[in-house]
Amino acid sequence: MAVFPFNLKCSAVFLMVASFLAAVAFAIGHGMFYQSLHGQPVLNSQPLASLKSSLHVSDQQLYISLGTFFAFLAKSSLGVSVSTTFDQFAWKSIQGERTRIDIIDDLLSVLRNGFTVANLRLWRHSPISMTLAVICWLLPVASIISPATLSVHLAPSNVYALKRIPRVDFTSANFVGFASGVVALPGEQNAWVSMYERPMTETQRVVNSVATQVNQDHAAHITENVIQAINRSWTFEEGKIPHVTRYAYLSWATETDNLVDTVPFYQKNGSDTFTQRSNQLGPKPKDPEDGSAVFSTPTKPLVGGPPLSLFVTVFPRVTEYTEYDEALKNMEKTVENSTILHCMLHNASYQANLTYVNVEQTIYVTDQTVLNSIVYITGVTNVESGRLSSNTSFVRNAQVMESLSYQSIMDAFGGLLFGSITREIDFLRKPRAGIHQSLLHTEKPTTNIISTTLMETEEMRHIQSVTRSEPDSNPFLNYWPVCILDRHPTIFGALNIYNRPNYTAKAVPETNVTITSYHSIYMYTRSILWAAYGTALGATALSVIAGVLVYFSNDGSYSTKFSTVFRVTQGAKVSTNLSMKDYSGLDPLPDHIAKAKMTIGYNPDYPVRVSSIVPLDQPRVLYPSGLCPSLGIHAF
């Protein structure tokens, strides 16, 4: 006998509603459990090891298993609710109508055999029951999707701290090479002078610059000067091979800030010959009275005057017009579409964000403000305004040393870019031999840029076809490339092993340092979990509502228990006779029974028959010809 509440008339309704509410609770619990793990780090621990040392289960395995268990409980509860509703509709569809026994068999077994869902006869006979069966079979999909909404991802973890960071010590003498001398004066202190000589080797690795485009008027002046130089390069003298020189690349430093002195070629004493400027650092300020060099003093550097500058030009059309006659006619076209950059050295105020990810550095510069210019310093002397200064050393003056360090960096920059790449076109003509031939060749480049990756840029790529680098003899091969072909100001910095972090030269405020590390964390996709559970719960809710309605229609509940089958079939009518062999109930179902039709259900017109319950010690009476009152099954 069933126990409470399954012995009630409304037991099916209670089971449907209670199972549905349990499924809702399990789904909510599943979501809350995953939400509690969202964003939490994946620990490398074994939480069950305290119970038993052999339980080598990680926390990730444990949490995913618990999530799967929640999904299993939710799916099971939904299955109970839908299958109970299915029982009500299945019994209702076969009661009171003549139905083939094989259809009844398939209908009552559809929840155990999913292949019977494809039986079209069942869909025609009981579409609602079959729809409920499909829902019941699809419920496990939600239990598959929902556990997968918890995953593991790599996420950055930031730690912020104020730290004293190393800085490049531009106030030291590590960047500049000096040539110093002392003059002994009788009765007075000695006069001394330290001349700027060259950048140190380490300075080649520290190149800070600002690259900007020149204005159009300046560019036109430069290209006109280059065209004049090309025109003057054309020679046709007796006994010499006619030739013309074209420039693919040019880089030079200016003599002064005068526009005339900023072009790459100049004429000596008004001659027709154009000579390329040979200085890689300039302009160099001079005394306006006598034109002599201007020196800094130990107390202050030069602050007035034009900034150190460098020009870089690229002429992409140099590879055109390989014939001598065509080259003469199209000299002006060789400078078309040229790229001209003017680099100037200034002090600047900026905010730099340096990011190191897997030993790769990225620099973001914001709020850049250009301040005073860096002027060329010929040297430093203790002679100031015709008098000897009491200062014996300028090394202690941070401003003077910084200016010299910046100057050496610009000098190193010029050493990398200064020079030219030219292409010569010779014309070989021997009328007697019938030879009229143009000879094209590239002169040895006088610039170190060919050994850098700048040759791979779009502006310089065309030059690779007319030149070659000599890496074995070039000191710039192992230096990092300087990308000056950027349209926006760019700041570059590099530290080598000779530069030591300096925490003492000028106290600087502590810098906010962000240390980012990556850890595995749990990520919970709430939308997918509730899309799966929401679909399953919605379909089940509709099923429960339909089950409650059919309960009132049936005026009671049904189940698939044997007692239900036993009682329902007491008044059944079968359209065939059963033999003793058929009473065994063994599979397969005989064809004559499968095709037979049966009418089952409560019928008040049925007479009360002899009880079918016969003691086991009494013999049973067989009715072979059609009537079996003890079982209440009638053949017709």
Mean pLDDT across all amino acids: 74
Helix content: 25-40%
% residues in beta strands? 15-25%
**By helix and strand content, what is the structural category?**
alpha+beta
Largest sheet: 6 strands, antiparallel
Strand order within the widest beta sheet: 5-10-9-6-16-17
By DSSP (H or I, 4+ residues per run), the number of helices equals 11
End-to-end separation in angstroms reads 35 Å
- Low-confidence segments, given as residue ranges, are 208-216, 234-239, 469-501, 608-636
How many domains in all? 3
Number of strands: 22
Given the C-alpha coordinates, what overall shape results? elongated
Please tell me how large the radius of gyration is. Answer: 49 Å
Which terms summarize this structure?
636 residues, alpha+beta, 3 domains, 6-stranded antiparallel β-sheet, 5-stranded mixed β-sheet, elongated, disordered C terminus, transmembrane, transmembrane helix, membrane
Write the layout of secondary structure elements.
Blueprint: H1 11-37, H2 59-94, E1 99-100, H3 101-108, H4 120-125, H5 127-145, E2 150-163, E3 176-183, E4 191-199, E5 210-213, H6 216-233, E6 243-252, E7 265-267, E8 274-276, E9 309-314, H7 324-329, E10 339-344, E11 346-357, E12 360-373, E13 379-381, E14 383-384, E15 387-388, H8 398-417, E16 419-430, E17 435-442, E18 511-524, H9 526-554, H10 562-568, E19 573-574, H11 591-594, E20 597-599, E21 627-628, E22 633-635
Parallel strand pairs: 19-22
Antiparallel strand pairs: 1-20, 2-18, 3-4, 4-13, 5-10, 6-9, 6-16, 7-8, 9-10, 11-12, 14-15, 16-17, 19-20, 21-22
